[in-house]
Automatic annotation (TrEMBL):
InterPro entries reported in the protein's UniProt record: DUF7108_C, DUF7108_N
Residue ranges with Acidic residues bias: 25-41
Record domain DUF7108: where: 35-122, 127-215
Name of the protein in question: RnhA operon protein
Superkingdom of the source species: Archaea
Species this chain originates from: Natronorubrum sediminis
Disordered: annotated span: 1-41
Length: 221
């Protein structure tokens, strides 16, 4: 029997503040005072959406792990709660959670506004996700048309990586993220031909030239 001071961890409700995109962007200085900075909330939501959308269990688990690691840096954790048939991502302080019982201890909840809930049904901005993918795929075709199939295939692999793992424009990748593509994804997931491997750095140069940016240097951290 559940104690009155306990609720199931995956049923956390009525203790979280619903915060949509406009609320987050309306904060005067969200990174200064908020317990969870806006960019952390946004990234947690993005990873939760990716976890739900990918067809591969390994990739889904990777997104869940990234979300857990990100939130742990701020002493937060998350649960996905079903609310009238719709999934809601709830971010809440780790101290509220009883790991042994896998419940939320309501007697530990000092301020309900510390939690954030984010509906996961639909898209936060219906145009964002498709626009990013369309942008990256357009770059693939531009490189293929200008420089041939080997470079086009390499950039297509980069677009796959960005779409599956980061859902951002290729030129917005950080140095570390691009290095992850070079040293991990390209080697383990692409099964590149010898010509592709030899051409990879040139392919990256071409794609960043196309968008008018310098290729990120993995040593420039």
């Amino acid at each position: 029997m559940t104690d009155s001071s306990e609720i199931p961890a995956d049923s956390l409700s009525d203790v979280a503040t619903h915060r949509d995109k406009d609320d987050r962007e309306g904060d005067a200085d969200p990174g200064e005072d908020a317990e969870l900075p806006v960019d952390v909330v946004d990234e947690a939501e993005r990873l939760a959406r990716l976890e739900r959308s990918v067809g591969d269990d390994g990739e889904a688990q990777a997104h869940a792990t990234r979300r857990a690691t990100l939130l742990a840096e701020h002493d937060f954790t998350s649960r996905i709660r079903e609310d009238d048939g719709e999934d809601v991502l709830v971010l809440h302080p780790d101290e509220w959670h009883d790991d042994e019982e896998n419940v939320i201890r309501t007697d530990r909840i000092d301020d309900t506004s510390r939690a954030v809930e984010l509906p996961l049904e639909g898209t936060r901005d219906p145009d964002d996700w498709d626009a990013v993918n369309a942008h990256n795929r357009a770059l693939v075709e531009q490189i293929r048309a200008a420089h041939g199939d080997v470079h086009g295939d390499n950039v297509a692999s980069l677009a796959d990586f960005v779409g599956n793992h980061y859902a951002k424009r290729i030129e917005d990748l950080t140095n570390e993220e691009l290095e992850e593509f070079r040293t991990e994804y390209f080697v383990r997931n692409v099964w590149p031909s010898e010509r592709q491997r030899e051409a990879l750095e040139k392919s990256l140069e071409y794609v960043y030239e196309q968008v008018g940016e310098s290729t990120p240097d993995p040593h420039d951290r």
